[in-house]
């Protein structure tokens, strides 16, 4: 990995937008991967840097790029509980039903880890609550398994509007 790409990853991880803007002036492709398959966008989202996420999206970052396990920036936000960034990614067209290597979705992560504001956000965005992971479990199954009664209620009461 060249020095500019290393700097891109470091600035994304740290949320250093001025450095990102300098890099964008000399590097036109921000869709690069590190050894774990992380992209700069995934790192910025996972480390809760909304301004860096916005800058990377503006520079052409692939919003649905996945790491080596199939996890996306939106899935990372659902896991960590970063509702503002999840909302930002959804506004920019992130796929709310993309599945990782185990069949998990952002909605499943949010339900499983008690990120109920993100469960609600994903349901409002049209996430499919009936998708199943590799074990045949849905988001409601995972919420119930973890004792997340509020997510169970949100998922049970969510009715698609036609």
From TrEMBL:
InterPro entries: Ankyrin_rpt, Ankyrin_rpt-contain_sf
Record SUPFAM superfamilies: Ankyrin repeat
ANK repeat ranges per the UniProt record: 36-68, 69-101, 102-134
Pfam families per UniProt: Ank_2, Ank_4
Transmembrane segments: none
Keywords: ANK repeat, Repeat
Superkingdom of source: Bacteria
Protein name: Uncharacterized protein
Lineage of the organism: Bacteria, Pseudomonadati, Bacteroidota, Flavobacteriia, Flavobacteriales
């Amino acid at each position: 990995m060249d020095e500019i790409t290393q700097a891109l990853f470091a600035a994304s991880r740290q949320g250093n937008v001025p450095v990102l803007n300098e890099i964008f002036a000399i590097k036109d492709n921000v869709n690069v991967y590190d050894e774990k398959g992380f992209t700069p966008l995934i790192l910025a989202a996972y480390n809760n840097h909304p301004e860096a996420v916005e800058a990377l999206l503006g520079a052409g970052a692939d919003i649905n790029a996945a790491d080596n396990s199939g996890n996306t920036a939106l899935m990372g936000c659902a896991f960590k509980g970063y509702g503002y960034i999840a909302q930002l990614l959804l506004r920019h067209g992130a796929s709310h039903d993309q599945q990782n290597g185990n069949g998990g979705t952002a909605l499943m992560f949010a339900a499983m880890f008690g990120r109920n504001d993100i469960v609600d956000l994903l349901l409002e965005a049209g996430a499919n609550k009936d998708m199943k992971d590799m074990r045949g479990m849905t988001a409601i199954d995972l919420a119930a398994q973890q004792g997340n009664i509020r997510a169970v209620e949100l998922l049970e009461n969510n009715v698609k509007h036609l």
